[in-house]
Amino acid sequence: MKILKTIAEMRAARAGVGELGLVPTMGYLHEGHLSLAARARAENPTVAASIFVNPTQFGPNEDLARYPRDLPRDLSLLEAAGVDLVFTPEPAEMYPAGFDTVIEVRGVTDGLEGAVRPGHFAGVATVVAKLFNIVQPTRAYFGQKDAQQSVVIRKMVRDLDLPVQVVVAPTVRESDGLALSSRNSYLTPEQRAQATVLYRALSSAKARFDAGERDAETLRHAMREALTGFTADYVSVADAETLQELDRLDGPAIASLAVRLGSTRLIDNLLLG
Ligand code: AMP
Predict the structure, then answer these.
(1) Catalytic residue among 30, 33, 120, 221
(2) Same-domain pairing of 210 and 163
(3) pLDDT digits over 199-247, tens only?
(4) Based on the structure, what is the number of domains in the chain?
(5) Cβ-Cβ contacts under 8 Å for 88 (sequence gap 6 or more)
(6) pLDDT exceeding 70 applies to what percent of the chain?
(7) Is the Cβ atom of 272 under 6 angstroms away from ligand 1?
(8) Domain that holds residue 215
(9) Is 221 in the active site?
(10) Same domain, yes or no: 154 and 82
(11) What pTM was computed for the model?
(12) Which of 19, 65, 142, 202 qualifies as a cystine partner to 270, CB 3.0-4.6 A?
């Protein structure tokens, strides 16, 4: 496995190979990330992962400084997953003095995470576009866990004609339903026990959907009931492509929510139909 710290090194390593799958991450890897690496490994002759805690996608009062990091552990997990190339640039390599360009995907970033985290998706879209230009992947792998992020990236790729296939893979969960997340490491044991409320709320909406309920507000209400006593930033049942809140479900939809447990903010979602 080759570890590349600079854009020039990454470009040189990429130049020598054909089809390539890229798994972009912020590190502190778990089975969710590794499922993306395994999928990329199965579908591409060469696999690259990036580890970069992207400062531009964090708001001023968010957790950039305390975001968990463990590069040696990440590298040994990626090596075991059969990854060939790991791109781990420093922030100054990605954002040198005088960096001034931002990619803004409109519309699908208005609600949900975009509404609560202004500027977040501009940071995500810009860094992912840079990673695509540097690594030039044939396919890029993202998790359904960050549903709005996947929609934003798909839209950017379509709108800007970027020559990459975006693959979105299912959310990997703990046995009690909690979606794996690097941020789960912030939770106290008590908060970790409470965190199952996200999946419980989503599952109650999904059960009603599976039983035939198609009124979106009824499904949102079921989630809010399950979240009684918790602080939710939003509870949503939206069109899976446009992310517009729905009245009635008559096509692919997504139930999603964001919940605060102390100073930790967790998100999750389930596809409906
Ligand atoms: P992050 O390191 O949190 O930026 O995540 C890197 C990639 O892993 C993103 O595409 C995430 O959507 C994906 N990911 C994070 N958690 C999970 C999970 N539990 N299951 C599947 N993919 C995930």
Answers:
(1) 33
(2) no
(3) 999 999 999 999 999 999 999 999 999 999 999 999 999 999 999 999 9
(4) 2
(5) 3, 4, 5, 50, 51, 52, 71
(6) 100
(7) no
(8) 182-272
(9) no
(10) yes
(11) 0.98
(12) 202
